[in-house]
Amino acid sequence: MQKSVLRILLISLTLIWTGCGVYQPENAELTTTTISEYSNPYFSDTTKDYVYKANMEIYGRNLGGIVVIKKINEDIHRVVFATDFGNKLLDFEISSDSFKVNFFVDGMDNKRFLKALEDDFRMLLQPVYAINKTFVGKNEIIYGSEQNSGNIYLFENKEDKFLYKMIFARKSKEKITFEFQNKKDTFAEHIGIIHHNMPFTIQLTKI
């Protein structure tokens, strides 16, 4: 009887330990952290308008158009979604601690949709990430930063120092993946945002 109770207790503790585990990038080892901050190389120039062809898929529905991203000052970016013909669909301003919707058309005021956009673009546009851990893989250095009750991991290619991926994770699970394709270290030619806990993806391609 005591052995059965002990076995059940050990299994329960194992499940609790597994469920509360912390995400770690695959094929990478924790190493000494030598930097305290990581500057986001993208969307950092206040003199530029970053214009992308956009495609969003959410719960089987497809929405296409144009996205314009503008850095207003050190803390705030403005993001405008429009149709291919230039009709505005959604206009908001975002910083590390604020989210202000300036305009939306009917159908784009869904709270869950806006919350997903807020989370995505806050992580995508954040100017500086405070670094608290570092991992080394075969071809990349990965910097970890606490973010939104979880952690965001920034994957930098060792060879050209390009930021090519970010992963947002809570506990041991990946929640959102950001993928970047670029020819310059300061401009992302293509951005993919994939949610792992809901059917929502965003694809941005430079125009």
Structure description:
The chain is α+β, with helices and mostly antiparallel strands and 207 residues long. The protein has one domain: outer membrane lipoprotein receptor (LolB), chain A, CATH 2.50.20. It has helices spanning 2-19, 111-125, and strands at 28-31, 37-39, 49-58, 61-71, 77-82, 88-94, 99-104, 128-130, 133-137, 140-147, 150-157, 163-170, 173-184, 187-195, 200-206. It has a 13-stranded antiparallel β-sheet with strand order 1-9-10-11-12-13-14-15-3-4-5-6-7, with helices on one face. Strands 2-8 form a two-stranded antiparallel ribbon. It is globular, with a radius of gyration of 20 Å.
In short:
By secondary structure, the protein is of the alpha+beta class.
Strand arrangement, major sheet: 1-9-10-11-12-13-14-15-3-4-5-6-7
| CATH class category | Mainly Beta
In CATH, the architecture is Clam
Continuous helix count: 2
Distance between the termini: 69 Å
Number of domain units: 1
- Would you tell me the overall average pLDDT? 89
Number of strands: 15
Structural class call reads: alpha+beta
Give Rg in angstroms.
20 Å
What are the secondary-structure elements, in order, as H or E?
HEEEEEEEHEEEEEEEE
Q: Enter the CATH topology name.
A: outer membrane lipoprotein receptor (LolB), chain A
Q: Tell me the β content.
A: over 45%
